[in-house]
Structures are given as C-alpha cells and as structure tokens.
Amino acid sequence: MSGGxxxxxxxxxxxxxxxxxxxxxxxxxxxxxxxxxxxRGQRVAAELALxxxxxxxxxGERDSLGWNQGMLFVYDEASFxxxxxxxxxxxxxxxxxxxxxxxxxxxxxxxxxxxxxxTVRPRELSETILEVPAGYAxxxxxxxxxxxxxxx
Length: 152
Prior knowledge:
Elements lengths: L2 H18 L14 E5 L2 E8 L2 H6 L11 E11 L3 E2 L7 E7 L2 E9 L9 E2 L5 E8 L2 H4 L8 E4 L1
Parallel strand pairs: 2-3
Antiparallel strand pairs: 1-2, 1-9, 3-8, 4-7, 5-6, 5-8
C-alpha cells in the first residue's frame, strides 16, 4: 500500500473506532431524508431510527433539528413505547402513530440540561413515532386522528 493509501486506511480505521466506541462526534443534522412523513399536508424530511442502537440514541447529543425535519422510530409491532430525553439539548414534540393515524401527541417535551429529562408515554398503542422540533405539531394544527402518510 502506498504512503497516501496507508494514511487514508489509518484515518478510516480511526474514524470507525471512534464511532464504535461512542465517540462524541455528532451525526450531521442536515442530511438526505430517509423517509418523508406527511400530516395535514405538511411534509417532514425524516431520518429513520430502525435498530435498537439508533432508537436508544435518538436525537440525543445533537444541538438542534431543522424546522421541517424529524426522526422516525419504526417498530415491528404496536406497543406503549415510552420516550425519555436522555442526552437531549433541545425540546421536541413526539407524535405516536398507529395504522397510519396519529394516536397521541406530546407537545413541547422539555429537555433537562445535563439530565435525563422526563419520560413520556402514549395513551394508545403505536408502532411508529415521529419526533419534530418543539411547537411544530401545534403550529401545523396536527391532532389525534389525523391521517399520516409515510414514504420510504
């Protein structure tokens, strides 16, 4: 391997090791959406949280979330999925979805700097949960019973 190739291989190994060890580097907030979620005609670009590791991390350790952006948590079966604000640095709205309908909304869930913050539970079973910036759901008039369209 040439000196330049070795340099890149070492750099890639270092980045991989840092990521695997839970390094403090944040994933980019502005990125290509993995899904689109539409509620009441408002389309949100969503990052997917599919694996247990992605779901546990969620939006924790990030500084912000763009106004028309969100994170979509997708589970195999419906349950009463509770969410906590561990590592959160900003407030969010949490929207629980089942069978393509909004079944519950937690508005303006507050983060606690340096703490875990509240644990929020839905009133209904859900299999999909959308997190968006605080105030987003109310500003667009989202309500329980609204139809949800998800494009992946």
